Structures are given as structure tokens and as C-alpha cells.
UniProtKB/TrEMBL annotation:
InterPro entries per the UniProt record, alphabetical: ATPase_NBD, Type_III_PanK
Subcellular localization, as worded in the UniProt entry: Cytoplasm
Pathway the protein contributes to: Cofactor biosynthesis; coenzyme A biosynthesis; CoA from (R)-pantothenate: step 1/5
Chain positions recorded as ATP binding sites: D6, C7, G8, N9, T10, N11, T12, V13, T132
Cofactor info, note text: A monovalent cation. Ammonium or potassium.
Record GO cellular component, one term: cytoplasm
Subunit structure: Homodimer.
Catalytically driven reaction(s): (R)-pantothenate + ATP = (R)-4'-phosphopantothenate + ADP + H(+)
GO biological process: coenzyme A biosynthetic process
Sequence positions that bind substrate: G107, P108, D109, R110, T184
Protein name as annotated: Type III pantothenate kinase
Keyword Kinase: yes
Enzyme class: transferase
Length: 260
């Protein structure tokens, strides 16, 4: 069975792929200090709670936090006796091209999203991922990653307001009923929520104009549904896009490896 790990700057998600479907998904806060032994006890407990008796034989990792990879490699080696594929490393092949400036290290999450998006929807895509940062990944007609946009994340923007201004509280994002807020919290939520709707719309319109072609817009990440229900921004929402991509990339490397 395959253990797929998607490590973002805020959360790390583990999932088990049995060859047909994902058996479970478990989330922990990203912390590079967490050891292999800690990961194993945590994961083993959660799998047992769900009655899953898994023989993990393979592992694939995508991490936007380089420091985390060391302990995840130890987990793979010590507990599953396997060498993991790490997206972005030269020995982990991708089934799509990456066409960016020489010397650029693209976030592995963006490459994985590209592979998954192309598999599910074909080419000419904009994938919007609402993570710690909000990323826009542009997928060419042939599935290649050809660049994109990085904007501050929704929660990061709210947190920045709180950190920088003495009188602004910590606020959670939600859709305000009105644009004009009549209290501080409503004013902040309006600024970030409607500001974000504008940001997403403007960036997608400009990408389409720059490329001179129609493009499908796919959203993913925890906060995507909040924006989807409020404004007609996306053509489709994909809940587990990154996990889907990890499983495809793992399969691709196994197949290519077997041919060599
Ligand atoms: N369903 C949700 N509702 C509200 N906030 C969420 C939800 N899912 C994630 N978040 C928040 O969105 C931000 C990005 O989370 P996540 O997508 O896990 O980021 P990353 O992949 O960068 O680790 C975090 O601040 C997280 O707490
Ligand atoms: C832009 C990101 C910080 C997004 O990461 P996330 O919000 O998922 O934690 C990550 O993809 C990254 O570190 N990228 C490197 C630069 C690039 O993609 O061009
Ligand atoms: K992410």
C-alpha cells in the first residue's frame, strides 16, 4: 500500500492508497522537529482507530518545507523499509514538462497539482490552491506547468492585519453579509473576503488575456468552497487534488522504473 504525504507550510496530510481508492486522510500541523518515531505512533494509532490494517510498502512525499523531509525519509526507511519518492528531486520523474526560468525551484505542491489537474480536466487550466499562500498554477494544453502567481494566503492576510495594527483583533475568515462593515471584525472580514474575490477574478482574467485562450479554472484547498459558494469564480472544485497527483506520480515512477 502507498503512503502519500503532502506537507504544506501549515499542515501535513497523510493518506493511504490501496491501488483503487484512498482509505483515510489524517492531518497534523507541520513541524520539522517531529521525529520519525512520533509520526509512526500517531499514524499507527489513527489507522487502528479506523480499523485499517495496512501493509505500507511504498511512500511518496511532496513538501513545501525542505527541513521536514529528513524525518519523513527516516520514517519510510525505519518503519516501512522503503525509499520514498520525493517530488522535486531529480530521481522522482514527472509525467509533465516544467517550462520555467532556468534555476527556478517550483513548489512541489504546484507540480503535483498540475499533474492531477491535467489528469482530471485536460490542459489549459488555472489551478487555484488556497494554502498558506494562495497559488495559481498555469497548465498548458499539453499538461506542462508553465508558471503562475503566488499571493498571500487568506489567513495570512488576516493575521498580518492583526500583527501589525494594535487595535485589530484576531479574526477568522467568513463571508460577510454586506460589503460595508459596521464593526471592526466585519470591516476586516469584508476587506479580506471581497478583496480576495477581486484578486482571484482579476488574476484569472489577466492570465486568460495574456495567453489568448479559454481556460478552465479549478480550485482546491480548505477555503476554496467558501469562495465558490459566494462568487462564480471557478469551473470546478477538487477536494483532494494534491493526493490524486501524488498517487499518479508514484505510479508513473514505478512504471518507468520497471521499464528501465
Ligand atoms: N476548512 C477550513 N476552514 C477554515 N480554514 C481552513 C480550512 N482548511 C484549512 N484552513 C486554513 O487555511 C490555511 C491553509 O491551510 P492548508 O490548506 O492546510 O495550508 P498548507 O497546505 O499551506 O499547509 C491555514 O491557515 C488553515 O488553518
Ligand atoms: C508558494 C508556496 C509557498 C505554497 O506553499 P503552501 O501554501 O502550500 O504551503 C510553495 O509552493 C513554495 O514554496 N514554492 C516555491 C516557489 C515557487 O513555486 O515558484
Ligand atoms: K498546499
Amino acid at each position: 500500500m502507498l503512503l502519500a504525504v503532502d506537507c504544506g507550510n501549515t499542515n501535513t496530510v497523510f493518506s493511504l492508497w490501496d491501488g483503487t481508492s484512498f482509505l483515510g486522510m489524517w492531518r497534523t500541523a507541520t513541524d520539522w522537529k517531529r521525529t520519525a518515531d512520533q509520526y509512526y505512533v500517531w499514524l499507527d494509532t489513527l489507522m487502528k482507530l479506523q480499523g485499517i490494517d495496512a501493509e505500507i510498502s511504498d511512500m511518496i512525499i511532496s513538501s513545501t518545507v525542505p527541513r521536514v523531509v529528513f524525518n519523513l525519509r527516516v520514517l519510510s526507511d525505519r518503519y516501512f523499509n522503503t525509499r520514498p519518492f520525493v517530488v522535486g528531486k531529480s530521481d522522482c520523474l514527472l509525467p509533465v514538462d516544467v517550462r520555467v526560468d532556468e534555476g527556478t525551484t517550483v513548489g512541489p505542491d504546484r507540480l503535483v497539482n498540475t499533474v492531477a489537474g491535467f489528469d482530471k480536466h485536460g490542459g489549459d487550466l488555472i489551478i487555484v490552491d488556497f494554502g498558506t499562500a494562495t497559488t495559481f498554477d498555469v497548465v498548458d494544453v499539453d499538461g506542462a506547468y508553465v508558471g503562475g502567481v503566488i499571493a498571500p494566503g487568506v489567513n495570512l492576510s488576516l493575521e498580518a492585519l492583526h500583527q501589525a495594527a494594535a487595535a485589530l483583533p484576531h479574526v477568522d475568515i467568513s463571508k460577510p453579509q454586506r460589503v460595508v462593515g459596521t464593526n471592526t471584525v466585519a470591516c476586516m472580514q469584508s476587506g479580506v473576503f471581497w478583496g480576495y474575490v477581486g484578486l482571484v477574478r482579476e488574476i484569472c482574467d489577466r492570465i486568460k488575456a495574456e495567453r489568448g485562450t479559454a481556460m478552465k479554472i479549478i480550485s482546491t484547498g480548505g477555503l476554496a468552497p467558501l469562495f465558490q459558494q459566494s462568487a462564480d469564480l471557478f469551473d470546478a472544485f477538487e477536494e483532494d487534488l494534491t493526493m490524486h497527483g501524488l498517487q499518479i506520480i508514484h505510479n508513473y515512477n514505478k512504471e518507468v522504473g520497471a521499464q528501465e
